[in-house]
Amino acid sequence: MKLLTVIVTMQLFYSKVASVEEVGCVSALNLLTDSMKLLGVRVLHLLTVIGFVGFPSGLGAQTLSEMLTEWDPAWPQRAGITAVGYSQEQNYALDNFTIDFPVEVDPTLLLSEIENDVSQWGTKADFWILPFLNVHAMVGMVDGQTGVGLTPAAVELIGTDQIAVNYDGTVYAGGTTLAYGQEWWFLSLTGIYAYTDVKGEIESIPSWMIMPKFGVRREALEFWCGATYQRVAERQSGVFDLDGLVLNYDLELEAEEGWNAQLGFRYRFSDNVLLTLEAGLGNRKSMTGHLEWRF
Question: Is 163 helix (H, G, I), strand (E, B) or coil?
């Protein structure tokens, strides 16, 4: 049976970070490193199991080394280049807020709804090391806006109704996908590490995501449902000038919901050209488009 091609869907979300403190970056990187190590251990364990039990059909008679060096023409085209477009909207939750008031202030008295919009365009290259193991790398441009709404009391005090931050930068990402399928169905699990180099006086930030999917296939069409977990944080700092009274503020934000649902489809024009569209549902709304060339 033909192993179903499962191509990694890139969904990168990045938020602008203003004046990120070194300690915060180290903590985030440590957490990310530990998470990726755990994922790596599980991947190696799964590969070991696969090596012992084998695959059904044509894969079952081959060892991992044979899969690596003797690529079956019935398997997916091994390499691919993809043009990626992505847009996203989601709400943020307040993680921490400080301002130089003479007295302590409850943040809920000052801040209301927090929204983030982001758009990304880029190019991705991927390669199937084994019939069930894909790796990819991506580079692209990202821009977005985070708007922190203020309560009527804060508007009267500060003189503006929103703290709005616009940003843009360059995105670098890499990841891997484990995939398995039969003639009419497939499963995949993707892990991605990403790094954004933001322009201006903004510290660059890391981020990561996990994407499990289940799909079906009929002739040239593939349909799937799945979920995406994103771990991302944003930090802003700045100054309010109230007629000569200068107030410094520091704002830490995180995604209101880590998980959201995904629905998508892919149309295969030929073995070499594919078109993918995917929509994100829930608190995080997104739209992804891929035009892919495989060889």
Answer: strand
